[in-house]
Specification:
The protein has 16 helices and 2 strands. By secondary structure, the chain is mainly α. A hairpin with a 2-residue loop joins β1 and β2 (92-93). The longest helix has 29 residues, at 126-154. It comes from Marinigracilibium pacificum.
Length: 327
């Protein structure tokens, strides 16, 4: 469904294709071209352009910010894949698998530098640029905090639902909120309206991450683009596992804790066994209810945006496309 956003997608892909990078050393810059061109929904930069188009039509003015958002997102993917030891990204080898871990770290670092280059390309007054950069820095730090908390949870025996939701707010949701807010601010939206737009993105992002947790277990591998069951293998404290640990009793509790403590196991066997426990405890339906609550909060906020209804159509369509995704 996201393909319906042409010509915005065409413009984004054209800018990504024309991404200006030095040719030497190739080991540093080729991985950037690789990760930026192996697909992806372009959801976050689309949100930046759509946030702008709520208030103005000349969306090209927001394109540098959209590129900055997409570069930052891909930078986080490169480094997250290293930390997660993930073999696949968008159905292709991850950067550190295709090259090596050190190259992945350095290439990611350069991507972050390029993010600031794109922000500096914005043709806006200095005070507005300072505001956007300040908000981006808060967002970027929270993304890193969320990633660290996510890793901390792997070795914690007691992660609460509220702690998990705060972690995914930082790791996933704040970037969606910032992407929308940046576009709106560039277009001249007031600070109050920018906060409202950011809240929409944050609630959408929390629902999106809960959906991603579900898909990690229940998605079709051919469509998902990542290793199905990766969270189970890594003992990631997703909402599914937190809920299962709260509900499990008797043999289910014993078996689940056994898999969490196991250090030598067959990946496929572990994924199959833990998924079966989730099924017996009706975890899927429970998490789907929470996910839909956040999507409802997002749409309720969207309903109250102080712009004409026809201006909201594209953002509503994109949000619905995300909710109905298969990968």
């Amino acid at each position: 469904m996201i393909e319906k956003f042409n010509p915005l997608l065409e413009e984004l892909n054209k800018n990504i294709d024309e991404l200006s990078l030095p040719h030497h050393p190739v080991e540093l810059y080729d991985p950037i071209k690789y990760i930026m061109n192996i697909g992806g929904k372009r959801m976050r930069p689309l949100l930046t352009l759509l946030g702008y188009k709520l208030f103005a039509d000349d969306y090209q003015k927001a394109m540098p910010a959209a590129m900055a958002v997409e570069l930052f997102h891909n930078f986080t993917l490169v480094h997250d894949d290293i930390m997660d030891e993930a073999p696949l990204r968008r159905g292709k080898p991850t950067v550190h698998n295709k090259w090596n871990q050190n190259i992945g770290i350095l290439s990611g670092d350069v991507m972050l530098v390029k993010v600031y280059d794109y922000f500096l390309d914005l043709d806006i007054e200095p005070s507005k640029l300072k505001s956007i950069l300040g908000k981006f820095n808060v967002c970027a730090a929270e993304v890193c905090e969320g990633q660290q908390e996510d890793m901390n949870f792997e070795t914690s025996d007691n992660v609460s639902e509220s702690e998990y939701l705060e972690m995914i707010r930082k790791k996933t949701s704040v970037l969606l909120g910032f992407a929308l807010e940046a576009g709106a601010e560039i277009a001249g939206a007031t600070e109050v309206v920018c906060r409202q737009i950011r809240d929409f993105g944050v609630n959408l992002g929390i629902g999106f991450q809960l959906q991603d947790d579900l898909m990690d277990v229940y998605a079709d591998q051919a469509k998902f683009g990542k290793q199905v069951g990766g969270d189970i293998i890594a003992n990631k404290k997703t909402m599914l596992l937190i809920e299962a640990l709260k509900k499990a009793q008797g043999e289910d509790e014993k078996e689940l804790n056994g898999w969490l403590k196991a250090s030598d196991f067959n990946n496929e066997e572990k994924v199959k066994a833990v998924t079966a426990i989730y099924d017996r405890l009706d975890i899927r339906n429970t998490i789907e209810e929470r996910m839909n609550d956040y999507f409802s909060k997002a749409f309720n906020t969207l309903d109250h945006f102080p712009v004409p209804e026809n201006k909201k159509d594209k953002i509503r369509l994109l949000a619905e496309a995300l909710i109905n995704r298969e990968s």
